[in-house]
Amino acid sequence: MKYVDENGDPIDPSELEDFEAVEQPAPPAPTAASTTEAATLAEVPGGGVRIPKALIAGAAVVVLGLGGGLAYAMSQIGDRNTAGDVKSAVSSAAAPAMSSASAKASAAKATARRVTGAVCDGKAIAGAAWPEEGATPTTQLRTTDVIPMGHGFSKRRIDAEEEGQKAKLAMLQLSDEQLGVYVASTANAQSNGDAVWWKTTVAITGGFATLGETYGDGRDRDMRGACDTIAGGPYRVVGESGSEEKPVEVLMLKPSATDEGTVYALIGDKLAKAVVEHVPDEAEK
Q1: What pLDDT, in 10s, does the model give residues 259-273?
Q2: Which of 77, 143, 149, 184 is the 20 to 30 Å CA partner of 32?
Q3: What pLDDT does 173 receive?
Q4: Contact 159, 189 (CB under 8 A)
Q5: CA–CA separation, 200 and 213 (whole Å)
Q6: For 16-40, b where at least 16 C-beta lie within 10 A, e where not — what string?
Q7: Is the dihedral of CA 39, 40, 41, 43 positive or negative?
Q8: What is the DSSP string of the chain?
């Protein structure tokens, strides 16, 4: 047996009478917890922290719901086990799926061809009519801009509905630059001194916006060469305020006489600027 003093220096057994013997316990074996902690914090070459593969398996599986499928980025991680490796692998796995989804969306939009070659083409607009139980329309209205109508317009339209009437509406192209949208006051309001018409003036060139609203005098007319106003009903409208799954109730439409293929559609208390498109065939989608 070997004897040492408190400094670890060897002691001659003949000198033990001058020392007090004390038993020193063996250091405890490493536990599973201390081993895991050491692995988690271990430095790896090039900086960064090494991550246990058990944690990667539990937390680094990323499901990407893109392009109608599921891509598991974990399959691209392999034996990488640093935070930087995992992040890089997930990004690499996501990029092709995102690119594919974007390409499909662009292709779908590209197949919807705009109707061209005629101004005031009522036939093309009529092709977008979509009765509840009718066949899919041959054309559609794709909104490119939507603006809210003013409070005065909304109030008079709602007042008519509450009195059990259908609001009387009108739309005129006053000039190359402006559109007039009108709603009639109810008979009850007129009997109380309200004017017959409420007018909203809309800018249609250099921007699309309401310029103001006030009482109309009933003397406004379409400009020379303006297109006929088209009655409302259920139409196929896509884009903002539209739906590809079901008809949208349009209150009134006015084709533009100065912007080929453009039509203005009154949808509830919003005015939409739209273009007329051919509905893509199934073979084109």
Answers
A1: 988 999 999 999 999
A2: 77
A3: 97
A4: yes
A5: 4
A6: eeeeeeeeeeeeeeeeeeeeeeeee
A7: positive
A8: ---B-TTS-B--GGGGGGS---PPPPPPPPPHHHHHHHHHH-B-TTSSBB--HHHHHHH---EEEETTEEEEGGGGTTT--BHHHHHHHHHHHHHHHHHHHHHHHHHHHHTSPBP-S-SS-HHHHHTTB--TTSPPPSEEEEEEEEEEPPHHHHHHHHHHHHTT-PPPEEEEE-SSSEEEEEEEPPHHHHHTT--SEEEEEEE-SSS-EEEEEEEE-S---PPTTPPPPEEEEEEEEESTT-EEEEEEEEEEEEE-SSSTTEEEEEETTEEEEEEEEEPPPGGG-
Give the start-to-end residue ranges of the domains of the chain. Answer: 32-109, 122-284
C-alpha distances in Å from residue 84, one per residue of 63, 68, 112, 277: 19, 28, 43, 48
pLDDT below 70 — which residues of the chain?
1-9, 11-110, 282-285
pLDDT single digits (tens) 175-196: 999 999 999 988 888 887 777 8
pLDDT at 46: 41
Q: Are 70 and 76 in contact (CB under 8 A)?
A: no
User: What pTM did the predictor assign?
Assistant: 0.60
How remote is the C-alpha of 165 from its chain's centroid?
A: 37
Structure tokens at 48: 């960064």
